[in-house]
Design brief:
CATH architecture of the largest domain: 3-Layer(aba) Sandwich
Strand content: 5-15%
Structural class: alpha/beta
Order of helices and strands: HEHEHHEHEEEHHEHHHHHH
Distance between the termini: 50 Å
Helix content: 25-40%
Number of domains: 3
CATH class of the largest domain: Alpha Beta
Length: 349
């Protein structure tokens, strides 16, 4: 479910029975719970930026069929927004299937999305439906759509135009009725200019575009989110000290909501049932300069991202697969970022 934190300091418990008549937010007319999830997934909203986003999202959710492109930095909450849109659409009683396409092996992307027939390739010992067929009647969320190979992009365009899929190794078309949500932290228009993304697919998908603002641009949401994450962990006191709250509000959060959730979990474990204090939070939160720091101490977003990637890699002993999972990106994306990082170092040298 998701929860609008507009009037309270402490969110409701994460799991509760669904009301026969779902309660709607008075602001955006979106239902206040999301059925069918195996774990808590809520939008906590106090900032004006997020309120504006949800007001715009309401009629888009209820439109039912048109594609939606969801933009935002890694960890900002793109998938949670997608699940909210689906839960408030006419397709809510049908499945929402989410797939991070960047995590799919390049030679299996088409088989995963469109299915395959028995014997279509080595290892295909039985026919298998793809994700488009599995999501028939519902919604398919293609996360990291910017990583999708061009050949698969052409086939997705065909699905959007004709409502048909063809399994790998088959000559038969199958009808599907699927709404497409796409999420990415890339500038798709720039990807089109560099011919890494099909222009015709870009314009076919870009009916509606929603951008989830990064956490640093909605500081009013930080503490409500932190309290929500802490409530989900069944922490003994469910409280932060004044010093810890001040630090959480001051941090830049390059990893956005995902980084905040990890920091709260870190603090909950180390506090061992007492109020979470400075010493219980990750050490790197305390190394950041205060908001009154001089301009010379500030860094670009690229520099912050680079430092965060290197810090995560160091913490996992250089294991790229584990680092990619923590960062919430595919291994291919991490490899590309590391390659770009090496090129930048070489240019500097």
């Amino acid at each position: 479910m998701f929860h609008y934190e507009t009037m309270r300091n402490t969110p409701e418990p994460c799991r509760r029975p669904l009301d026969p008549e779902p309660k709607l937010c008075q602001l955006c007319q979106l239902r206040a719970d999301t059925p069918g999830l195996t774990r808590c997934s809520r939008l906590v909203v106090r900032s004006e930026a997020m309120r504006d986003l949800l007001v715009r999202a309401g009629p888009i959710a209820r439109s039912g069929d048109v594609p939606v492109v969801i933009l935002g930095e890694t960890g900002a909450g793109k998938e949670v927004l997608a699940r909210t849109l689906h839960a408030n659409s006419p397709r809510a009683d049908k499945p929402l299937i989410a797939i991070n396409v960047a995590a799919l092996p390049a030679d299996l992307v088409e088989a995963e999305l469109f299915g395959h027939e028995k014997g279509a390739f080595t290892g295909a010992t039985a026919a298998r439906q793809g994700l488009f067929e599995a999501a028939d009647g519902g919604t398919l969320l293609l996360d990291e759509i910017g990583e999708l190979p061009l050949a698969a992009q052409a086939k997705i365009l065909r699905v959007l135009d004709r409502g048909e899929v063809r399994r790998v190794g088959s000559t038969r078309e199958r009808r599907v009725d699927v709404r497409i949500f796409c999420a990415t932290n890339r500038d798709l228009a720039n990807e089109v200019r560099h011919r890494r993304f099909r222009e015709d697919l870009y314009w076919r998908l870009k009916v509606f575009e929603l951008t989830v603002p990064p956490l640093r641009e909605r500081p009013e949401d930080i503490l409500p989110l932190a309290r929500m994450f802490l409530s989900e962990l069944d922490h003994a006191t469910g409280r932060f000290t004044d010093a810890a709250r001040e630090l959480l509000e001051r941090h830049h959060w390059p990893g956005n909501v995902r980084e905040l959730a990890n920091a709260v979990q870190h603090g909950a474990v180390l506090s061992e049932g007492s109020d979470i204090d400075l010493g219980h939070l990750p050490e790197d939160l305390g190394t950041e300069s205060s908001s009154s720091a001089s301009t010379s101490a500030l860094h670009s977003l690229a520099e912050v991202e680079r430092a965060h990637i290197l810090r995560v890699l160091e913490a996992v002993g250089g294991h790229q697969g584990e680092a990619a999972q923590i960062l919430g990106i595919g291994r291919t994306t991490l490899w590309r970022k590391l390659r770009d990082l090496d090129e930048d170092v070489g240019a500097t040298d």
